[in-house]
Amino acid sequence: xxSSQSKRSAVYSSDQTAQTLSDAASRTNIEELRxxxxxxxxxxxxxQYLVRKSKRKAAYWEHYLEYLENGKLRxxxxxxxxxxxxxxxxxxxxxVKNHAEKCLCNPVNKDKGKGKQTELLFQPGEGxxxxxxxxxxxxxxxxxLKEVREALIHMIIVDELPFKHVEKAGFKYLMSVACPRxxxxxRTTVARDCFQLYMSEKTKLKELLKNCQRICVTxxxxxxxxxxxxxxxxxxxxxxxxxLHKKIINFxxxxxxxxxxxxxxxxxxxxxxxxxxxLFTVTVDNASSNDLACAQLRRMVxxxxxxxxxxxxxxxxxxxxxxxxxxxxxxxxxVCIDRVRNAVKYVKNSPARILRFKDLVxxxxxxxxxxxxxxxxxxxxxxxxxLDTALKFQRVFSGLSLxxxxxxxxxxxxPESNDWKKVERLVVFLRGFYLLTRRISGSLYVTSNRGxxxxxxxxxxxNKWEKNVDExxxxxxxxxxxxxxxxxxxxxxxxxxxxxxxxLDPHSKLLVVEITLTDMYGKxxxxxxxxxxxxxxxxxxxxxxxxxxxxxxxxxxxxxPMSIDPNEDDHIGGGSDYMKSLRDRAKRLKGTGGYxxxxxxxxxxxxxxxxxxxxxALSWWSINGHRFPIVSRMARDILAIPLSxxxxxxxxxxxxxxxxxFRSSLTPKMVQTLICTQDWLRTKGMSxxxxxxxxxxxEELEKDFQNNNLDDDVVYVDSMI
Length: 721
Fold this sequence. Notes:
Helices cover 48% and strands 10% of the residues. The protein has 25 helices and eleven strands.
């Protein structure tokens, strides 16, 4: 049987005469051959080189010169001096192929072979994966030093480590033990590698953005320790697989916090990414400068072309409005809050007092695992956390000698029983706002579908507290209601996309929106507003149908009654009781649907199955989107709208860690490189860098030290005790 090589035999096979090979060599243009060589390669004098009329099919032959020696065909490597017999029938091509793949002089193989070392690795035995002393199996493994270096750059960026980390003695010692052959790069090389990774990841993200339908943007500004104004721009979009993405696309210096500067910077950023024609909404806080910025961006999208002529481009941050509403209320209880804050500060400012506090907690048999925490006076949610935690240790505070007497200000005195009663009521009052803020501040799950219902829940809470018998809390609710009315009192001024997002959630649709509006504003006004929302939804559907007319189905289908999931739980803090009652009522009121005329009506009248009721909105659309080609286009854009600017604001926390007093020399370009690349490298669900220790874990560790007599030499001294 003929060998496989005979099927790929050379043009000059073994049965050709020496004269034929010699004639072929004589026709070779030596000057043309020299031009094809690498710069440092020279032809050997006296050799009869030849060039084929038709090239060999195998790609590795491009790395060789062919010549005749004693009438036999041979191949010479273009990058080194090695030669091989090259007659396909007599010699085969295995040696030629292997050398082409391994020749270290060949630029193609620059990273092959080089940078790898074979190591003896111990593989843990079954059941002993976490055991250091368990039996293991000895095996061979290959360590790729290039991958080690890439992993090092990944660690530097994701864990927010300084470039000089690689030059520290501890890291050098670690690498000398873990991977002795790894050459540790300098801090300059690390910085260069970080930038190269940034450019590589940016190219990938550009391709992803190019294929998305539209993007929603959040932006905010921040002043660093360098006194440089930075602006963060975050893109939110749903891809073709119905996955929600949040990507920081810019973290750059900005000339000022004025609206014109913000608008121009956002426009320039979108143009640099090539996505200015994809802008759908911009979510910002309620600063007046942002109104000017959105007006400028609206003019930009109107020039290019956009949905609804950019009328609904501006989305106001709901979390920021809630912050304003809550502060107007809790300022009525400033004295009791200040007293609790000072009590917490007094305890936490001394290690000895903390020990005394823990001792009293044990004696009082308080089993709470919470630890006292400071609040940030400008962030009411941290104030809520401080009050909620302190309330659990109310009895313990009474056993401490807190500062009191002459010279102590009234708001710095120890909390009295009446203060604790107010704090208890305040915590109950604020808990709803706290959970609501957490629900709408997420950036890794859809929030736009719940925005309208969260606003309605606030309205419901404030109405109940306005009727409270406690005059202090009644006054607080009235004050907060005034602030609420300033932003959300006139529903007609709200962005209509907030209502459509609720309709495009298959668990609620139009009926739940109608019920909510009639609850808030009475039957007459509520139904008028509901009809306005319905008309806008249909007009928006018509606009999308004109944009994607090729996707319109040829015939209508009959609809089914819709059901609402009354048991949907929010994955952070639990669903709202108000929302559950709305869905129960909608389920009772919904009748069966007859023949429907449009795809949108089919969607509104279709009933959810039992399994579908357990799905989130994106999961439902990923399965059913093909049945509603136009409505699914609407959902892909509108459900991606973020209701808060938390995604951009959180980047400033990272910026503050990168630009601390010890690293304030980083250039703005490098700051952008680190923050953007960190965001892109983090997988969904990966937690951010937490610079604070877990207090509960530290307390458990401290107990272990005490049980093992490891802290006998630790002495706490405090003259105030």
